[in-house]
């Protein structure tokens, strides 16, 4: 019997885990680094830089978009991607659950 135990964790813990999962692949980290250096990119930009197929890059972009870490806007025939700065602020705040600033110990729940 497989029980869903995520309901035992608060919404901040669940969101931090969701974002961390989206970041848990080096290709996604590389995509985010590229987006941080540029205002926006298309899928082909990442395909040119990464040793991955277009379909694999698209899947990684989908994961990042589903987590809210990036935004996509369609300008047919291309899709443009950029960082979602609001979610990156949220990410920084949520990290304080584990790594509080000022060298304090994280609050145990």
Index terms:
109 residues; alpha+beta; Arc Repressor Mutant, subunit A; 3 strands; 50% helix; transcription regulation; HTH_ArsR_DNA-bd_dom; Transcriptional regulator
Structure description:
It contains five helices and three strands, in the order H-H-E-H-H-E-E-H. It is of the alpha+beta class and 109 residues long. The protein has a single domain (10-103), classed as Arc Repressor Mutant, subunit A (Orthogonal Bundle). A three-stranded antiparallel beta sheet has the order 1-3-2. Helix 3 crosses helix 4 (54-66). The longest helix has 13 residues, at 54-66. The radius of gyration is 16 Å and the shape is elongated.
**Under the CATH scheme, which architecture would be assigned?**
Orthogonal Bundle
CATH class assignment: Mainly Alpha
Number of domain units: 1
- DSSP E strands, number: 3
Unreliable spans are none
What is the helix/strand order? HHEHHEEH
Helix content: 40-55%
The helix count comes to 5
* CATH fold-level label: Arc Repressor Mutant, subunit A
- So, the CATH homologous superfamily? Winged helix-like DNA-binding domain superfamily/Winged helix DNA-binding domain
What percent of residues are in strands? 5-15%
Which assembly state applies to the chains in this document?
single chain
**Which structural category do the helix and sheet elements fall into?**
alpha+beta
Report the principal-axis shape. Answer: elongated
Pfam family, one: HTH_20
Domain HTH arsR-type: 9-109
Protein name: Transcriptional regulator
Organism: Persicobacter diffluens
